[in-house]
Write a structure and sequence with these properties.
Strand order of the largest sheet: 1-2
Shape: globular
Low-confidence stretches: 5-10
Mean pLDDT: 82
CATH superfamily of the largest domain: MetI-like
CATH class of the largest domain: Mainly Alpha
Radius of gyration: 27 Å
Number of strands: 4
Structural class: mainly alpha
CATH topology of the largest domain: MetI-like fold
Helix content: 55-70%
Order of helices and strands: EEHHEEHHHHHHHHHHH
Number of helices: 13
C-alpha cells in the first residue's frame, strides 16, 4: 500500500493554525490482486453452501411433501413400512445428546491439556506432546467405533451402574424404567464418551494455539507482582484465550454433530426420545443415514427421506455455527487481560 501526503495551505492558515494534511492511500497491484482473491474465496464458500442447501432441498422435496410438518415432530423413521413413516425428532434429539455429552467431557480436558503443554510441561516434552495430539486427530473414525463397541462398552457397564445407583433419582441417569432391571449397554452415554475422545485432539490443538499467543509481557508481569503460575493462568491466559476456547469448542461440536461411523457401530438404533443417557438404544441423524442408505438405495422415497434428514442436520449445524460466531465476536481473545 503506497501512502501519499498532501499539505494544505502551506505552513498554516491566516489565523496561524496549521491545517491537517490529507492522507491518501493508493493500493498497489499486489493489494488489488490479494483483495480480489480473498473476496473470491469468501464468495465461493457462500456459493458452495447455497448449492449444498439447494441440492438437499431439491432431493428431499418429495419426502417433505408427503410428511409435511410431521417430519419435525415424528419420532419413527420406517422407510420400508406401507406407507413409509419418517421423522427426525428422535434423531435430532439423539444427535444433540451425544454432542452435549462429548462437549461436556472433552472441553475441560482440552483446556487443561492445552494449559499443561504450554505452561507446565518441560520444554523438551512440548513438541512430542503436540505431535501426539495431532496424531490422535488423524485416527480414522471407524477405529474409534470398533474400539468403543468391542472394548469400551463393557468397561463402562460398572461406571454406568454406579451412576444409576447413586444418581438414579435424576431421570438422565435412570437406566431402570419402572424400577426394573438395568438396561445398560449400547447407549448414547457410551457413544458420547467415544465422540468426546475423538473431538478432544481437535479442541486441544485450537485452544493450545490460542493460549500460545498470550502476551508474554503480561504473563511475566503477573509473576513479577508475586502471583503464582496458576494465578497468572487465571488472570491472563484464560481471559486472553476465551475466544479460542469457544472457537475450539464449536469446531469440536461440528465434528460431534456430524459423526457417523463411530455412532453407527456403537449405538443400538432406537426411534424414541429417552430421558436417560444410560439406557440402551438411541440414534443420530448421521448414523441413521449411514445405516439406512443401503436399504433405501432402490426406494426413491427412502432416498428423499434420508436427504431430508441430511437437510435437517445441515440447518442445525448452520444455526449452531452462526450462534457460535456471535458468541466469539463478543469474546475476542485478549479482552480483559490489562494489568
Amino acid at each position: 500500500m503506497v501512502t501519499t501526503f498532501e499539505a494544505i495551505n502551506g505552513e498554516g492558515g491566516a489565523d496561524g493554525v496549521v491545517t491537517p494534511r490529507d492522507l491518501t492511500t493508493v493500493p498497489t497491484r499486489g493489494d488489488v490482486i490479494y483483495r480480489r482473491l480473498a473476496m473470491s474465496a469468501g464468495l465461493s464458500t457462500l456459493v458452495i453452501m447455497v448449492l449444498i442447501f439447494t441440492f438437499l432441498l431439491w432431493k428431499s422435496w418429495d419426502a417433505l411433501s408427503i410428511s409435511g410438518a410431521s417430519f419435525i415432530t415424528e419420532t419413527a423413521f420406517e422407510l420400508v413400512s406401507d406407507p413409509p413413516v419418517f421423522g427426525v425428532a428422535a434423531l435430532l434429539f439423539g444427535t444433540v445428546v451425544i454432542a452435549a455429552i462429548a462437549l461436556t467431557l472433552a472441553v475441560p480436558i482440552a483446556v487443561a491439556t492445552a494449559l499443561f503443554i504450554n505452561e507446565y510441561a518441560p520444554i523438551p516434552l512440548r513438541k512430542p506432546l503436540i505431535a501426539l495430539i495431532d496424531l490422535l486427530a488423524a485416527i480414522p473414525s471407524i477405529i474409534y467405533g470398533i474400539w468403543g463397541r468391542n472394548y469400551l462398552s463393557e468397561k463402562l457397564f460398572g461406571p454406568g451402574r454406579w451412576l444409576d445407583d447413586q444418581l438414579g433419582f435424576l431421570p438422565i441417569f435412570n437406566s431402570r424404567p419402572g424400577g426394573g432391571d438395568y438396561r445398560l449397554g449400547a447407549s448414547t452415554f457410551v457413544a458420547g464418551i467415544v465422540v468426546a475422545i475423538m473431538i478432544l485432539p481437535i479442541a486441544t490443538s485450537v485452544i493450545r494455539e490460542v493460549f500460545s499467543q498470550a502476551p508474554r509481557g503480561e504473563c511475566e508481569a503477573a509473576l513479577a507482582l508475586g502471583g503464582t503460575r496458576f494465578g497468572m493462568v487465571r488472570a491472563v491466559i484464560l481471559p486472553f484465550g476465551r475466544g479460542g476456547i469457544i472457537g475450539g469448542s464449536m469446531l469440536a461440536l461440528g465434528r460431534a454433530l456430524g459423526e457417523t461411523i463411530a455412532v453407527a457401530l456403537i449405538v443400538s438404533p432406537a426411534y424414541d426420545i429417552k430421558a436417560s443417557i444410560l439406557e440402551t438404544g438411541g440414534n443420530s441423524v448421521a448414523a441413521e443415514i449411514a445405516n439406512q442408505f443401503g436399504e433405501a438405495a432402490n426406494n426413491p422415497i427412502g432416498v428423499s427421506a434420508l436427504m431430508a434428514a441430511g437437510l435437517a442436520l445441515f440447518l442445525m449445524t448452520l444455526f449452531v455455527n452462526m450462534g457460535a460466531n456471535v458468541v466469539i465476536g463478543r469474546s475476542r481473545s485478549g479482552a480483559g487481560v490489562d494489568l
